[in-house]
Every structure is written in C-alpha cells, then in structure tokens.
Amino acid sequence: MAIKVHGYAMSTCTARVLLCLSEKGLEYEVVPVDVANGAHKQQPYLSLNPFGQIPAFEDGDVKIFESRAISKYLARKYKDTGIDLLGSSSLTVSTIVDTWMEVESHQFNSPMQAIIRQMIVNPIFGIATDEKIIETELEKLGKVLDVYEERLSKCKYLGGDFYSLADLHHIPYLVYFMRTPKSSVITSRPHVSAWWNDISSRPATVKVAETMKV
Amino acid sequence: MVVKVYGPAYASPKRVLVCLIEKEVEFETVPVDLLKGEHKDPEYLKLQPFGTVPVTQDGDYTLYESRAIMRYYAEKYKSQGTDLLGKTVEERGLVENWLEVEAQSYNPPMFTLTVQIMLSSKLGLPRDENLIKESEEKLGKVLDIYEERLSKSKYLAGNFFSLADLSHLPFTQYLVDHMGKEYMIKSRKHVSAWWDDISSRPSWQKVLQLYAAPFKN
Hints:
The structure holds two protein chains of two kinds. Chain A contains nine helices and four strands.
C-alpha cells in the first residue's frame, strides 16, 4: 500500500493523521511501532523521524513527519478526493483555516497536552498527578476557550462555515479530555459544546476515537 | 493599500517582515509596546483576540499567527520574489514538515531562553537557571538533529531556501547576539554554515537594520 502511517492508535498525533485519511476516504496501512521497547528511538525508525517521535509517514517515495504537516500534505495532494479540508477554493479562505491551525498549535495544544499528561498519561506510568499543574493549565485553557466561544458564536466551524483541518486538529486531545472529570470546561461553553458535539459525531471521528483506548 | 505589520520590534513579527521583503511586497509597520502591555489593550484584542504579535492588516483583511501570515503572502505572491514554498506538492510537504519542527521542537526551548535571559530582568523576575540549563539541553538535542539533516541537504526542506529556514531567523539571531550562546550554532559545522547563509541574505540584513531587538542585555 502506498500510504503508510508508522504509529499506533492510542497516540494523539497518529490519530490526527488517521482522522484526515478517514475523512478523505483514502486507503492506508498502519505500521505499528514498538514504542514499549524503544523502537522509535532507534534505527530504522529514526530515518523516518529523526526526532524519534510518533508518527512517521510514507506515500510511495514521499517521507514526511510532524502530524500537522502530514495532514496538510494529504489535504493538498488529495484535494479532489473526498471533502476539501483546507478551503482550497480561495487563498483568503484557506488562510483562515491555516490561522486556526496555528491557534491550535500555539494556544490550545500546550495547556491541553499538560492536562492530558497529568490526568491520563501519568497514571499509566504510576507517576503522581500534580493538581496544581492541572489547575494552572485549566485556567490557561479556559482563557483560550473563551476566545473559541466568541469565534464559534459567529461561525459554525473554526475555519468558517465548513469543517476543516482547523477543527480536526483539535479532536485527538479532546477525545481524551472529554473522558475526564474536567470535560465541563467544554460543555459549559454553549458554542464550543455544540461544535464538539458536531465534530465528535462525524463517522470518521467515531471510527478513529473507538481505537483510542488507554 | 500597503500591508501594515504590527509589532516590528519583536521576533515573531520579524518572520513576516523578512518574508514580505523576500516576496518584494511593500509594507508599513505599527509599533506595539509589549512592556507597556499594549497587546492587551481592548483595541488590540479586537484585532488579535489572543493578545500576541504580530497582526497584519491588508485593507479589510486582518490576519494573525506569524506562520499563517508568511504562508499567505508566500502563496499570494508566488510569481514574484523568492519562491519560499517549493515547486511541487511533495516539496511543499517537506517545507511544512520542517516548519512544524521549528514550531514544535525548536521554538519552545528558544522562546524559554529568550524570556529567561533577555526579558526576566525587565519584568522584575529572577532568572530560573535550572530552566535555562534544561532549555539549552533540549535546544542542543534539536540542533544535533539539524546538524545531521543539514549534512545531507543545503536547507531544511531540501536544496532550496524556504519558509522553513526563514522561520528560524528572528529567535536564532537573539541566541547568537544577545544570549551569549553563539557557540551552540558555531560548534556545529553544518548548522553554522546554514546559519551564515540564511542570516546574510539581504532581506534579513535589511530587517536587522530597520528594527533593532527591543530587549538587549
């Protein structure tokens, strides 16, 4: 198979790529990486992703890493397959999608990653949960979500009136976050909550979320 | 109507400035004083609700997030100036790959070092030496991977200069000029050659001439 994703279902960054592939209806193969035995920090994996991080990606001869770069590559290369996830019809429209992908990357990701680490990852490794970190990061996340609430009161999706990578990039962490007792941070904001209900019930989201088991 | 770029004194807006010069696009700048908290003024927040710089205004079209702005102008003016995006979908994929590396792996420790070394005294806060040491170590590991990459490829995305390289200019200039950490670049042969190449581009030299670093030690 030409498209290969090196990773595993539980990994949020792998899920980001799988969501894109599912939305586009593209065929692909998941090549499992033996993370438990450190395969991602050795060759041959390092020649696919020299940072030793998950996932890595191949499409024939094309080799790319970084989940957000992979999803954009897929959205561009396979623009005419399945739905248009970038708003490619117009540069001004696709740039708004790009802006909210940057917002996810630089405003949303950091507090969310810290919270998921404390609440979901640490317990797996028997590391104590730091409530103070959770509190601080929830406050940061809350301020970011206030801006999202305002944005989503004016348009149905983050990039405009159509579902795009700007929304999709948020899904992996939100799948885990909504399973925690802190999910009210989302449900208490009516427009953010409606947006989450919408994007989480998409068939591609349901399909990939089912495989994200801790 | 000429593009307005807010906050030219700071690093992130400089990504936009150097991109516009490479693409031969005229612009004006609007100062924003972060130390005075102008980025948290209600008027500014109407333009950029997250309260960060830069913002650009192009007639009615307002944008924020420096990397989104760069991509927009690189795409809009594809047929003039330097090609910064690659010629094929595959080359673009590699540009995006290394732009993500810059955003996710290079920038965070670099940003921490900037705040700790260049800003903390201005903010009346003590330097956190442990955090500085940790950030330098993280950045060092990233630079080791760059060293390997740049031993095989002249620029990060391939044999062409692109947004992926350009995005590194502002904060790396702080590292070598204002943090006393030039050795991190100079001690790595291929990273050093790459840095000399990209930082000596006339576009970057022009930005440095026009807009000095706001927080010097």
